[in-house]
Amino acid sequence: MSLGKGRTILAAVLTVLIAAGGILFFSAQAVKCTLCNELFMSQVFSSKSVEAQCRKNFEAQMEVVAAESDIPAQVFITILDNNSPSPESALQRLFRGDDTTFYNEDIVEQFEGLCREYLEGNGMKYGKTMIHNTAKRAARAYSDSFGIKDPVQARAFISKVNSSYGRFSSAGLMMAAVAFVPLIFLFSKKKDREIIACSAFTAMGGGMLLTGLICLILSIGLSPLITPQIYSQAVVMAVRGMLGIFTALGAVIAAVAIYLSLKFYKKSKTIDE
Asked: Which of 257, 176, 182, 201 is nearest to 11 (CA)?
């Protein structure tokens, strides 16, 4: 094997390593700064569509409770005047390790108080057991509509990313750096070093772009195990947003690298002439 062919093969291998290291580094950063970032996720969960759907679900369930108890649904819905449950507050509880269900004795007592107030105000007789059971059904519907029911896996994911993203970021950065240095020294001429460096970043950006597109097309990570369904859909939106950012960043890196590569190539041709 000639020296030229050997250098070409080695340059190709090092370029692949740089691309892989860059993808690993930016992947870890993307997940950490989006899906595992409370501020980013709050922007998704605080959207009007998510909150409106939660309220709609609650109101629909209150119609069912009303039909079973002969107490108007609006009586139960007034709980929202004193409490302000929201997808965003549920998410905050998830990140802080608090109870995310919104179901507790205090909520049951508040519903019970609303029921008694309505019945007594209208001179209607009632049984304490019936009122208590009705309040519990209403509180459960409240929890089902606004609370996060299965936070264990979501918290485990956040914890795992927080504990390991630093290692993945460092590994990716180190891989790219270790491959980049010898790649530069393979070429003695400045113009060749400039072009090969641009090629490495083009491969990195192209790899990120391709990875992001494949994940979006194959719906990788778009089946979160979290309920209710509206929150699962919100997480899917967040994952798509993260993949979109990752893909766009890859496109920008590749575009800039290609632009510089063409610029350096034209420059080298001018010098040669």
From this structure: 182
